[in-house]
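Here is a typical sample entry:
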Amino acid sequence: MGRQPRIAGLRVVMSWPADSQFAPAPAPPGRGRMRFASFSGVSLIVCGAAAIGIAVLLQQHAPSPSPSAAGTVGSPVKGPTLRKSPPLTVSIPAIGVDSKLLDLGLNKDGTLQVPDLNTSADEAAWYKNSVTPGQAGASIIEGHVDSYQGPAVFFRLGALKPGNEIDVTLADGVTAIFRVTGVREYLKADYPANVVYGATDYAALRLITCGGDFDPVTGHYLSSVVVFASLVSSSHE
């Protein structure tokens, strides 16, 4: 699949068709360009994989999704949608997550910006080239699973189950309320970019981190955990 860039201890793989809504502007002449894989859509594989696997050394293994949590990756109905408004925070009561959201995009060389492992391992990030949470389409929120100090913001992401609630507060004062429909773990070699990042006609939310076994040779996890959710309602301050 070609060499994959590593940034701040994370491995990032991205590709997109020319007409994708996630495609960044072309890199300026003379600058390094991303290598493209054969995925359709954009593939963001983000791992909070500390170089020495601190969580592994401490014998703290992030929970993996149970087979019964696989659920569905789509929504049986279109459901409500919200107007465009940048997200500020994400709250997941079932796993004790309450984080402000970083607003990250792409670096000048075309690589994905990721939360800093030293200063922001406990903060999730919204990928700003995706739709805002609540708009029709797939909104992407990423977070580290571990850091140099231990478990990070999405350490327990794999413990979520269908029916769990995810609340995202938006800049316009609205809280978008999502319900988990499925939680799945994919080997990175089999990562279904079309399923995760493909266009939807309903307000979808994807939460992504790393999971599975940690490879001390490469310093990365072998799998990705993806939570699929859809908007069910909203509230206003």
